[in-house]
Design brief:
27% helix; 451 residues; FAD/NAD(P)-binding domain; 23 strands; alpha+beta; globular; 9 helices; 28% strand; 2 domains
Length: 451
Amino acid sequence: MQQSVQISVQFTAPVISGILITAIMERYDCIITGSGPAGLGAAFALLDTRPDLRILLLDSAQVSSGGLRNDCKMNFTYPVGFPYEYWTAELAAAYLSRIEEFLKPMILEQDHVDRYERRAERVGVQLLRIRQSHLGTDGGIRLIKELVSRLEARGVVLSFGETLTGADAANHVAHTDKRDVQYGALIVAPGRHGFDFLRRFMTQTGIVYTDNCIDVGIRVETRQEHYPIVADYYDPKFLFPERTRTFCTNSGSAHVVQEQYRTPSGAVWYSVNGHAYSEKLRANGLVNFAVLRTVAFTEPIASGQDYAEYLAALAMLTGGGHPVMQRVGDFRLGKRTTSAGLNGDLYDFEPTLSSATPGDISLAMPAKFLTSIWKALKKLDAIVPGILHPSTIMYYPEIKLYANKPRFLDDYFMAAPDIYLAGDGAGTSRGITGAWASGMRAASGIISRLA
């Protein structure tokens, strides 16, 4: 990485028509947009060093959102969650140590992993050993409430239901749907759901970026007895050939859900995802996880986001406005799944995403993705026999939007003077701990410029 430049500055109020902006609007030392892990990590890091700072935390949602609400599984081992282009093992380890000290997670035990590693090696697959913590969706919500209360007690001004609409970088003014606010530094951390918002923000503020890489895949759902590795390793990370991997495993009280996205034209589409609760009383004996294939585009495709939305539109067309689901047994026979075929005999559990449309995912998913994913599943079945049981369900689409690649001006994710981009939506992380670390890193850059 490039060597950081230490600059000592004082944030002064610009003058418009001879009148100081501070005379007509509020001013904060730092405005943070997005209350997910990146935004929270940045806020706490700033306060730990400079408790006197005035901080405004905005979120377009009515409650604190982000990855902490989605099963709340946290990984504390590089490289999971840390894109290679921005993080070295040493740098990530330093931030992970600080995060672990702050959050004090309970690290899950792992048993009998050696046997799965040996099986994986025999078929050309890598199983990563990751130190993990799991709170579940309900535990994550409790953690969010605690963290937000702590920030509020330390003087952070919270404003939920307020959306950043743009920024005047020259005059250090943030525009929201409710007001204009002057800032000393601005951290924009909208998460994956804010991917398109961040593209528009970067275009408006003149930040140069590329958008050429996407993850497209399926979510697998089956009985836990068909994927027993989760009893020994909660969220196993398998790396397959052709840039294919498992991602975000949920078990015990596991549910597949759909998340709403909206294109710039206003069209609605859904990506599937997984949740699990921590309380054993709610256990349903099911497990779900994603299998994702990464593709990086070159010419002539200019935008991976636009391509992903095209795939999503095709999936919505195929599923009548909803994700598509197909049983493995039907897929192997080359036929579509029907509602009638979801019951009886081998098909002995009901899909948890009841709104998904039984059908044929091969009608909507490009062959390049589907072929790589099916190869990966066959290898996985050799490692953990049973995953390709005929009753196993494959849901499509699961698309991850964290491929924005801004051109940063320093090592602290500053993309324009005093504007920092952090978290999954900015491509600086892939997951809770990576996002938290990227927010902390942006905070370090702000502190260095205040010194």
